[in-house]
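Reply to dn_fold:

You asked what the input looked like. This is it:
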Amino acid sequence: MSTIKRSKTLLLLILSFGAQQFSIPLELTPIRPYMVLVLILYLVVFIKMIQHRRVIFSVSIIDLLLLLLYSYLSLTIFYAQSLGLGLHLMVGLVVLLASLIIIKIYAEPLSLDELRMTLAQAAKLFFVGSFLWYVTGCIAFYFFGYLSGTYDESKGFIGVQGLFLEGGVAPRFRGICDSPNNFGIYAMVLLPILLSYERKLPFYMYAIILVCILLTMSTTTYFACFILICVYLMRALLSLKAKQIASIVVLGVSIFAVVYLILNFFVDESEIENFNEFAATRLARAETGSGRWELWEFTLNLIWNSPIFGYGLNQSRELLLPLRNVQSTHNSILELLIEGGAIALLFYLTLLVVCFFCICSKVKNRHDKTWMLYSFIGSFVFSIANVLVYGDSFILMLALISVFLVKQKHPQSTLREHAIDK
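and this is what came back:
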């Protein structure tokens, strides 16, 4: 396969991970676009093998630790109360591992510059495509009253293309993902890539990214961005002069003043009241963690009864039914403790520590290291309020980091000046 075809295939594969909204719905879990594409690519690989063409990929320590974690979790189905649920997620883990391998098969033959360029293009298309899909949703709903059919009365939201209407009022942003929260998760992976490999982004791209993130109205997304901004500022302030710091402060105050004037003189009072009502609701949900505090307290009580081995893979949804009907604990660490116990948590923490150590010590290129650190930190913050250990975004991030780690033995090629880490 030519380099151009391989890079285009990798680009399409990365985008298919984020395109959750175009899934085929099933009772337990939807069939995601990336699953279909991965199956097709494995057929291509199989045909190559029949033709006696070599298909090779390298294995990193991250791959082995992830395999160890998923293998142990799969074994816990033997003492799970609901064998069907355990088998269902075990198949999902196999799909995730297969996806990681196919990413490596198509990414590793590319040169480092080709790989970086492909990742940057995928990130740019993700944000631009999501923004345009949101705009079409707004036009369809507000001008034509069109509903795409994604409606959940119990949760009080309506989905129209990239538009996610919470309570039928708040025009939250979900882009090509299936929810604002999931868009935020993928933004944490792809935004650092885009900013690391694009030296001069046009102004409209910065505007699109800012609008996308702000309109998610997701507390977790805001918090993750806040943490990343703090990390960036701590690094940047060490190299800035007093005059530059003062300019940043003046710019921030000016932006606040402009927004305040617009809200007071150009926005209708009734619209402000509607927004205030929505904001109060979001703040109330933030104070209770959208119900997470109560959920986590209930989960901890269950964990205490089986702290070493847990209750088995994918058993949390049944164990939490006495509290309310939820699919997970909304916390990666608690999810592993309740399903695989302290042993599963040990494997998971080992994976994270080794991954972080490899990024800091083995990745020599400053540009590569920067996006990996920011994506790793952002994803970890999200994992506190969501279960990412079984998530496709987590696998995508680990696969890309693994690819760069196994390519460190090759000479680093010249890269354009870095944008985020000056």
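Residues 3-128+191-197+289-406 form one domain.
Hope that clears it up.
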